Amino acid sequence: MNKPEQQFFALLRCGLWGGLPDKGLFSGATDWDAILAMATMQTVRGILFDAVMELPAGLQPPAQWMRELHRVVIRIEQSHELLHRRIAEVVPLLQSAGIRPVLLKGQGVARNYPNPLRRQCGDIDLYVGEEDYEKACRIVDGWGNVSGKESESLKHAHFRRNGVVVEVHRIAERLYRPVLDNRFQVWTKKQLSGSTLKVLNVKGVDIFLPPVNFNVLYIFNHAYHHFLCGGVGLRQLCDWVMYLNAFSTEIDSCQLETDLKAFGLSRAWRIFGVLAVNELGLPEEKMPLYSPVHGRQSRKVLEKILQSGNFGQYASRRMRRPKGYFQGKWHSLIYMHTHLGAIVLLFPKDVVAYYSYFLYNGVKQVVLDKSGKQYPAW
Length: 378
Hints:
This protein is of the alpha+beta class. It has helices at 3-17, 32-41, 45-53, 63-96, 107-110, 133-141, 178-191, 212-228, 234-246, 253-262, 266-278, 295-308, 316-319, 325-343, 348-371, and strands at residues 102-104, 124-127, 151-152, 156-161, 164-169, 198-202, 205-209.
């Protein structure tokens, strides 16, 4: 690692776990532009804020950067309040119709941070299952005011209502190897309809959260999924690490190992686990199935994450996408070919499976686009 990267991770770990940054690491010239650019790419500026504030005034970023960090933190706090209000509005509508939504990721994992209001917000993901999916979509479709483009995918319907994105999930996630995906869907349905769901109260409304063993695997797989399909930000891995830390005594490691093997995730889990311990500061004893032998592979994963940023949107090739429809599709194909080629030796089976899925789905999407099929399908 170069010095700005060392400083960035030192601040990130302090933001996650508390404590004071090493002042000696920031003595001399500090490239704050590089450090804060990394924080932006990885969507962790809010997490770094408290650590930066612990530095002596003479070692903090220039005034213009401090003002920007303050603005970022205020916007994040406002986003949390908005999401909480919208969750407390839409969930009771579904519950009153006999639907039991389960909140995935988002505000359900933010609470595991030392200061939840420092985690940058996303959208509202509500799992309702296939049986209640169309009913739930009609309810959400009739709620609030449209505030942007809406769409539907295999996994969920994507609504923009009252300033937030609400995704109504028929399935929680998709694996790219059919046999593994079949197992995963059976497992998901059982886990998210059982009696081991947890409860989160948001503004007086009780909302179901997934069971611990489901969540620890699901949060990881969600991050790994994005790593495969173009890039993942460190914020998603911080979510995973904070969950592992918060529920370390409740995780059934034996069952987790069985499930990871069943879904073909064991190798990826162990490689990312080294990153969680070495770079993000998770104690070894709280990292289930920790194996330090994957240090080299973990460093390659980290290099890729730092290059491409959150959801891969900072990858230089992806940022140059042309405007034309077919030109854009061709550009995406070349980008994905290059991206997957760089990681195929790390995760060969998953890369081959995802590349096959990407090609098939890309052709299918072109056909649907050109046939004039419109949202919503339900």
